Amino acid sequence: MKRTAVSSDRLTVRSPVPRGLWRELHESDCEAVPTQAAEWLDCVTATGRYRDASRLYEMPGGRLAVLPLVRRHFPGGGPVILQSMPDSWGFGGLIAPDGVDTELVSAVLDDLSATSALRVHIRANPLHADAWDAATAGRHRVTAIPSRAHVLDLSGGFERVWRDRFKAATRTDVRRARKSGVRIETDTTGRLAPVFYELLLRSFDRWAGQQHEPAWLTRLRGRRRDPIDKFRVIADRLGDRCRISVAWVGESPAAAILVLRGGANAHYTRGAMDPAFAAGTQANCALHTAAIEEACAAGCRAYHLGESGGSAGLAQFKSRFGAQPVDYARYWMERAPLYRMERSIRTGVKWAIGFRDA
Question: DSSP 3-state helix, strand, coil percentages of the chain (rounded to 5)?
Answer without folding.
Answer: 40, 25, 30
